[in-house]
Amino acid sequence: MLFQVQMDVRIPHDLPETKAEALKKAERARAQELQEQGIWRHLWRHAGRYANTSIFDVASSQDLHDLLSTLPLFPFMDISVTPLCRHPSSIRDDDR
Amino acid sequence: MLFQVQMDVRIPHDLPETKAEALKKAERARAQELQEQGIWRHLWRHAGRYANTSIFDVASSQDLHDLLSTLPLFPFMDISVTPLCRHPSSIRDDDR
Amino acid sequence: MLFQVQMDVRIPHDLPETKAEALKKAERARAQELQEQGIWRHLWRHAGRYANTSIFDVASSQDLHDLLSTLPLFPFMDISVTPLCRHPSSIRDDDR
Amino acid sequence: MLFQVQMDVRIPHDLPETKAEALKKAERARAQELQEQGIWRHLWRHAGRYANTSIFDVASSQDLHDLLSTLPLFPFMDISVTPLCRHPSSIRDDDR
Amino acid sequence: MLFQVQMDVRIPHDLPETKAEALKKAERARAQELQEQGIWRHLWRHAGRYANTSIFDVASSQDLHDLLSTLPLFPFMDISVTPLCRHPSSIRDDDR
Amino acid sequence: MLFQVQMDVRIPHDLPETKAEALKKAERARAQELQEQGIWRHLWRHAGRYANTSIFDVASSQDLHDLLSTLPLFPFMDISVTPLCRHPSSIRDDDR
Amino acid sequence: MLFQVQMDVRIPHDLPETKAEALKKAERARAQELQEQGIWRHLWRHAGRYANTSIFDVASSQDLHDLLSTLPLFPFMDISVTPLCRHPSSIRDDDR
Amino acid sequence: MLFQVQMDVRIPHDLPETKAEALKKAERARAQELQEQGIWRHLWRHAGRYANTSIFDVASSQDLHDLLSTLPLFPFMDISVTPLCRHPSSIRDDDR
Amino acid sequence: MLFQVQMDVRIPHDLPETKAEALKKAERARAQELQEQGIWRHLWRHAGRYANTSIFDVASSQDLHDLLSTLPLFPFMDISVTPLCRHPSSIRDDDR
Amino acid sequence: MLFQVQMDVRIPHDLPETKAEALKKAERARAQELQEQGIWRHLWRHAGRYANTSIFDVASSQDLHDLLSTLPLFPFMDISVTPLCRHPSSIRDDDR
After folding, report:
1. At residue A96, does pLDDT exceed 80?
2. What is the ipTM of this complex?
3. For chain G, how many structural domains are there in total?
4. Which of E55, E84, H18, J65 is deepest in the core (most CB within 10 A)?
């Protein structure tokens, strides 16, 4: 099941630099792990903004929450979630 | 080059039924044609709403405009456009 | 899987009265049918407004869309969808 | 009488970790106590967000306020309240 | 129990004048009847706008909905409802 | 002359507790003094929120400003002001 | 007493031209009459928009409402009202 | 003096086709005339939307208003105006 | 040329008191200087809020920016600017 | 390819003055370098606000992101991006 997730990252300027870097590094590792597992299906940067649009392929809303809420940068992200489904005009089998 | 496009369709209730049906049929044919050409890369319905999220792969903003503004339902859609680019944590080659 | 759905109904004042009444009657019948099947789990009116909060229990976002988009009043409703999951502090087994 | 309450939790990043943990633990205990008493009727997490939708069954707006304003995390929550009532199409006796 | 209700009236310009006048006259009669019963406790016009702030004293959210949804101008009003309760600094006994 | 005033209180979490308590105590004393003088006519808490709706009866906008801007919690409140006047359907003499 | 009033005019495109012209002519006559009386103190057009900012000098909110609600274009205007008072840094006697 | 103007065009679906076409043709002629005079300095389409960003070079706000309010499509446009001035980091002489 | 400027002042609670007082005193002196020069034509307080509406009479947008951006409280103000021009129904010569 | 970019700068008041000055100086140098290369085509200040409208001429959304995200003030800017294309009524060859 697919969910569109928009993440806007807002790291406070008074967060220590080393802590911020560690969080970003961990976030990147986790993002790549989930992509390799086919769960984080797409990941695009919004041009000019510290934000992304992601497509997740999960078994349930519960799985989506468990993944998102344990992302290292979760406390510093504004997240919006849109449940997707197959479009009747789609010709692509796995855009379900 | 990728663009995320959200389309919210609002067909006025006093548009004649036959005209509405003709527009929807033409929209569907055009959407499938553009998908087959690899231009309209993804097309997902928002669950519960007459709206979709689409990913277009075009050579320029101009091409994007020419495609969107000639869609049969264009006069009845609220459209928002977000230019996308490659995310540094992406592992997928064609999510550029 | 649970989804919270808010529906705001806006019936145009120039829709013929008989058509409006037929749609409302069909909507009611369908709503009760889905409640009896355990799919439309909760249905509450917002006090003072032509709007409701509903909780749907469906197998997927696709099922949710198929149900909502075929409601008789669908063309006259503004709908927002929030995917829900189990709260770690919940003590109620079926609030998953 | 039923009220729909949405709580968005925003804990400042410079709140000491131990204080934050103590508040969350106390919040959980209180939430479960109120659920056991049948007052906090439903409690759902919004998938992907530090937010919940709750349904409270209380005798009055005053009781609702006394409960919400004494929650341990109250100072760190954005709260919106929607009074609910029975929907004429509801078939469920206790969704009053 | 007190509720603050804001009503913004929007009568379509193509509603027949006689129908609009009949609705306004009926609305006025009903508003005065409810005031005389002590239910519609306060009724103030917003200076310069076709809108009002009202305070209702009702036994429940259900009663509030039954009153508001049967007002003659209900189909032409945007309504927002705020449940009120006693303020700890209030010195007025019936502002409960 | 009546004004509807909504006050949303936002006390920063890093304001020293003793200062916050002193401000709240002073606010309460001032609110009660103005109520006793018949100036702060109504004061209601919004159920579930650190906010209130107030009705002030003052001789002018200037008097309103002088009262509000010297409230102890003024620096920590978002305030919106709506000038009220008599509603043609009101039957209550002092709701002018 | 001064009030800042913003008026956004929205005349429906299907209002008969002669009716629209008659309303505009009457609006102009009334605006000039009120300016001559010193009540409509300032009247500025927003560059590029069918909107204005006005300053009214009236004895009360009631007087303001009686003036605005009887303007010929009132049914076609979105109006917002801001009560003004003397600024402590003002050096102009009649900007009270 | 430069002004940034955003125009969102919304032509009602029930405006007769011939009238709409005549307005668009007149709009185009006027836009080109003003460009040739160096007044309408830039004119860009928003990709995917019936909207544009324009830069006007005029002697005053009054001139801007006189130009915009007489555009053939003015009654069908939502317009927002931003006064611009020279940026201290600009190296381009005529971006004043 | 006239511009309407709204300034909402938000002084952070952790700005040292002496610095805040110095800024306010300097702001006041500058505001009065500009009023005496006929540039800051009107200055009104919004009743109940730390905000003002001002009318500036300047030769250009550039002059307006140079004045506003050097106000002592500029870093702590949210500012919105509306270019004004003569209203066709105005009877006042200097409301140009 | 042209993009319209709006940048609203918000420098926290507790950022050390020397750091803020260094960032602004670096930002200015980078802005001028990009202007000289013809990439940052236009740069205008919004009169009265710490904000600008910029037009970038880049080969792709990716190039735009790489430029914007490495601006020295990027962490302190709210940025919105609008892809532009040629307007059919434009007479200017390089406003493509």
Report:
1. no
2. 0.96
3. 1
4. E84
